[in-house]
Design a protein that fits this description.
Rossmann fold; five-stranded parallel β-sheet; Arc Repressor Mutant, subunit A; single chain; 24 helices; about 10% strand; three-stranded antiparallel β-sheet
């Protein structure tokens, strides 16, 4: 049997490609800290969204891939930049007036607008950790506020004070003339107001480890750069954190890519070695705009899980990280069915192909066995034609189709059924538009109904599909696609639809005959 390490080293799956860079990085042995450190960052100024989860998920995939190739221990830090000053109030939070009164304060010094935690930052951090925990991620959460205040970053902050001029040489060419005149990599926390200040530094004392700046009234104030009395501007902070924690791998969105040379340069100035880095494309909303925590213009984690199981979300996150993709409700059905398709293929694949299959990565190398259940799009169409008001009604059809299936024995299918009902009511039902069949279409539909009435009780989906094709080839020889469009538009009220043989088998032959007879009688199916 081929060793998994050998297969992993040859696999073309993107997590293995990234992990091989780490194998090369540590070909001489483990680093002094005794582990390979993966890091992911989170800006808690707004509600966590799918993009936040995605970064932890994808980093976890690379970590797991590396573990197949190396015996060096690994750790994953999820770092929250919760010491940042809040610059604007997100559109999608309550008590916005109260939050607006605290603009400029660190996120962990602003009251919680939701009223559940000791601060705004703590609430957002808890929201992130809850979801990561529900997903079973193995990670260590780090609060930037705590790291600064506990002195974890002190050594590198003092080194940044010592190397102040070198850091300025990196940063100033990237700034406009007005900003250059006042820029400092250090942002003091005002002892008076508690605000994170962006002010010029007028003196530095390397011996005492302090900086001096002027408050608004002109008073000179001296504060240590250590112990949480200052924080770094976000770009120097990025590089400082890499150096302080000795990070070995980090991925970030394409919007960070222009700043990567700055992060690396500052990390090196502070005595660190930049991590291996992976740049992914951004997710877009329904209008093609970048999704934003403050605008709330993407799908939330809760939104996706209302309609589909978490495995489908993982699959969508796995696919093509370097390709910009829409992250909106209409991508969900295909993501569910594609996930199921890859799961069904997995057991028949050889070991090398299995390591390229998304489900191997999604399930940490141990995907569940496929259950031969109906696809999500098929369930959506069943919900539509039966006008299902609750999951129990849909389960009635499923249980008749496969008596061995039940919510208790097939919990994944139960999630699909519940999600299909929710998705149908929220997105499909409002857009359904039935039309009456043309005379040739009515003739063909009648032939199909007649055949179904006489078909053997045990007729398989394949046999039904074959007969549908035969009718189409006879009556629509020059436009077979038009025959299927006619069925979708007259029977289902939509321009596209499922594999009809499978749909009829699931919905029931007698029920399909009644549906066709209603259409031929010109009844209003939308009523």
């Amino acid at each position: 049997m081929t060793d998994i390490k050998e297969l992993a080293l040859a696999s073309q799956a993107w997590p293995f490609e990234e992990a091989r860079k780490l194998v090369e990085r540590f070909k001489s042995g483990a680093p002094a800290k005794g582990c390979v450190l993966f890091e992911t960052g989170y800006g808690p100024s707004g509600l966590p969204h799918i993009g936040t989860f995605m970064e932890v998920f994808r980093t976890t995939l690379v970590r797991h891939a590396f573990q197949q190739m190396s015996d060096i221990p690994t750790r994953l830090f999820a770092v929250s930049d919760d010491m940042d000053g809040l610059r604007k109030v997100p559109d999608n939070i309550p008590n916005q007036g109260m939050v607006r009164a605290h603009l400029g304060l660190p996120l962990t010094a602003i009251p919680d607008p939701f009223g559940t935690h000791e601060s705004y930052g703590a609430h957002m951090n808890a929201r992130l950790c809850k979801f990561l925990d529900n997903y079973g991620f193995e990670y260590e959460f780090l609060s930037s506020t705590e790291q600064y205040k506990k002195g974890v970053y002190d050594e590198k902050l003092l080194e940044a004070l010592k190397q102040y001029d070198k850091i300025m040489d990196v940063m100033l060419p990237t700034l406009g003339e007005e900003r250059r005149a006042t820029y400092s990599p250090f942002m003091p926390i005002s002892p008076r107001t508690g605000q994170v200040l962006q002010v010029p530094v007028i003196r530095r004392d390397m011996t005492k480890g302090t900086i001096t700046y002027k408050e608004e009234d002109g008073e000179e104030v001296t504060v240590p750069v250590t112990g949480g009395h200052c924080k770094l501007q976000w770009k120097p902070d990025f590089g400082m954190r890499w150096a302080a924690l000795d990070v070995d791998f980090e991925m970030y969105g394409k919007d960070h890519q222009p700043n990567a040379p700055l992060y690396n340069a500052i990390c090196h100035i502070l005595g660190g070695r930049g991590p291996e880095q992976y740049v992914y494309e951004m997710f877009l909303d329904a209008e093609g705009r970048k999704i934003s925590k403050s605008k709330g213009n993407g799908i939330s984690i809760e939104d996706w899980l209302r309609y589909a199981p978490p495995e489908s979300l993982s699959y969508y996150m796995y696919q093509s990280p370097r390709k910009a993709k829409r992250l909106y409700f209409d991508v969900i059905p295909r993501a569910v069915d594609d996930y199921q398709s890859f799961l069904e293929k997995f057991e028949q694949e050889d070991p090398a192909k299995q390591l390229n299959n998304p489900v191997w990565h999604i399930h940490g190398g141990n995907p569940p066995k496929p259950e031969g259940i109906p696809g999500f799009n098929l369930l959506l169409n069943l919900a539509g034609v039966s006008q299902a008001e609750d999951p129990k009604a849909l389960w009635g059809y499923v249980a008749r189709y496969r008596p061995q299936f039940s919510p208790e024995t097939h919990p994944f299918l139960d999630k699909l059924v519940q999600g299909a009902v929710n998705y149908y009511h929220d997105f499909i039902k409002p857009t359904k538009k039935y039309r009456l069949p043309t005379e040739p279409e009515a003739k063909a539909l009648g032939e199909l109904a007649d055949w179904l009435e006489k078909a053997p009780p045990a007729a398989t989906p394949e046999e039904i599909q074959n007969e549908i094709y035969e009718i189409g080839k006879k009556d629509f020889a020059d436009n077979l696609k038009g025959w299927f469009s006619a069925m979708y538009e007259t029977l289902l009220g939509q321009p596209q639809g499922p594999r009809m043989g499978s749909f009829v088998a699931l919905y029931g032959k007698a029920e399909t005959v009644r549906l066709i007879r209603r259409v031929l009688a010109k009844e209003d199916l939308a009523a």
